[in-house]
Amino acid sequence: xxSVLDRYRRKIFLQTEVxxxxxxxxxxxxxxxxxxxxxxxxxxxxxxxxPNALPNLSPVDMMAKIKGVTYKKLREEFPHLRHxxxxxxxxxxxxxxxxxxxxxxxxxxxxxxSEVKKxxxxxxxxxxxxxxxEFALNIPTWQQxxxxxxxxxxxxVYNSCxxxxxxxxxxxxxxKAYRTLLKESKSRERDKxxxxxxxxxxxxxxxxxxFVKETQHQFEEHIGSFEAQKLATRAFQTVEKLHFGKSxxxxxxxxxxxxxxxxxxxxxxxxxxxxxxxxxxxxTNKNPKPKN
Length: 292
Known about the structure:
There is one protein chain. By secondary structure, the protein is of the alpha+beta class. The chain has 2 domains: 2-116, Transposase IS200-like (Alpha-Beta Plaits, 2-Layer Sandwich), CATH 3.30.70; 141-280, no CATH class. It contains 8 helices and 6 strands. The chain has helices at residues 16-32, 59-77, 102-120, 141-174, 176-182, 188-200, 205-218, 225-243, and strands at residues 2-6, 36-42, 46-52, 88-94, 269-273, 276-280. It has a 4-stranded antiparallel sheet, sandwiched between helices. A two-stranded antiparallel ribbon has the order 5-6. Strand 2 (36-42) and strand 3 (46-52) form a beta hairpin. The longest helix is centred in the middle third of the chain and has 34 residues, at 141-174.
């Protein structure tokens, strides 16, 4: 599977004619090389494709052919692209499908078009004032035990997110194009290309949010989705500091170390209502006595 971005993020695929012609050229180039295109989708400034090729054809040769043909033809046929010094970035992402089915990869390519729009949008930052209140809990022993279990599971979720973020960080740092760009002098173009590569590997706050969904489902009785997202955000930000050299190492949470838990809403999960701290689901007809 290939992911390719146009240089300077010029959003060349906003024009339907350019996108359609690009796809035609890719199919023509791949037909010459006896490559089958299983899936091909374009977003406004990048493309994802899933080719099926013989093992004697290297990814480098495939990418060189596709980039070369599309670069030449698109600039010839669309005058507004001629002023660009270059059409594609020097870097691209490639990965083998492994044991993943063609149908799964095809679905990934199709949904990626909408997902990247969300990832490229920065996380919203609160502008309202915040404050902290501390309450001394007066609870029976059975509630204390249940609370301790929730905190233990929260540490498991946090450590799982931290481990995944570290794995993605290592993958980014091992990328040859990424290492080459780091040696270049700082510029806006360079920073965008570095950000593109991090996004391709899923090294982003939204990327870790997607990862934590699967983990949270295993413990949904104890940890809500919003609480899990907050833990995922903190884990990613910890590894992000390591990535940019603002810290030297990260630490996994030991079971005997305290961990704070936050929520995004006062309607579900961990919330404060009528002088009580409630943590869990609301009573329903199906479950009149949830384990709060």
